[in-house]
């Protein structure tokens, strides 16, 4: 989706993973990463793994320092949010330039990971864990 804000073009995309949702906005700039009003490094607890996962689409396309990324992430934990950010960022880059789609698709960055927590069943302790069987 393309919108204009103070004469700047904004490209947006939404990503989901587990129970996390991330709304990503790309603005031409210097490469800042802002998540929920905080710098991205501090929000992701300075974890190199989460930062690498979140910015993977930009690294693949070589656009690391060309766009500022503003993200509203909610729900779940940091792992789910980092994966949701990755998908939202990839979708925003596809909205920006349809030629990016082929490269992101071959890397598997446009696929939504649909695995979610399985519900607990009655008579069991968790989704599949049963109480210990007693013969007598």
From TrEMBL:
GO BP: any one term: translation
GO CC, alphabetical: chloroplast; small ribosomal subunit
Coiled coil segments of this chain: none
GO MF terms, alphabetically ordered: RNA binding; structural constituent of ribosome
Gene3D superfamilies: 3.30.230.10
UniProt-annotated location(s): Plastid, Chloroplast
UniProt KW keywords: Chloroplast, Plastid, Ribonucleoprotein, Ribosomal protein
Principal subcellular localisation of the protein: plastid
UniProt cross-references to InterPro entries, sorted A to Z: Ribosomal_Su5_D2-typ_SF, Ribosomal_uS9, Ribosomal_uS9_bac/plastid, Ribosomal_uS9_CS, Ribsml_uS5_D2-typ_fold_subgr
Cross-referenced NCBIfam families: PRK00132.1
Similarity-based family: Belongs to the universal ribosomal protein uS9 family.
Protein name, per record: Small ribosomal subunit protein uS9c
Lineage: Eukaryota, Rhodophyta, Florideophyceae, Rhodymeniophycidae, Ceramiales
